Hints:
Elements: H1 3-12, E1 14-18, E2 22-26, E3 42-46, E4 59-66, E5 69-76
Antiparallel strand pairs: 1-2, 2-3, 3-5, 4-5
Zinc ion binds near residues 33, 40, 62 and 73.
Amino acid sequence: MDDVDFDELVASVTLREENQAIKSYQNTVAISCPACGSQFDDLIVCKENPTSLNLSKQLDLCVGSADDQAVIFTHKK
Ligand SMILES: [Zn+2]
């Protein structure tokens, strides 16, 4: 995943939640996950290193990095 794709991704998705550890974006425009090609549900940018996600649901995750931040794509099972 290169930085240009990531910038386009963030510009396309909708910011839903931001706290000191993460930014969470919802995939409202049906973008395909750059890692696995399936449509993802949420895009999470980790602002702190390391970061705990405290997931409340069982999710499949794809992981990338951009600008030295971990980026996580979630897929509901
Ligand atoms: Zn994926």
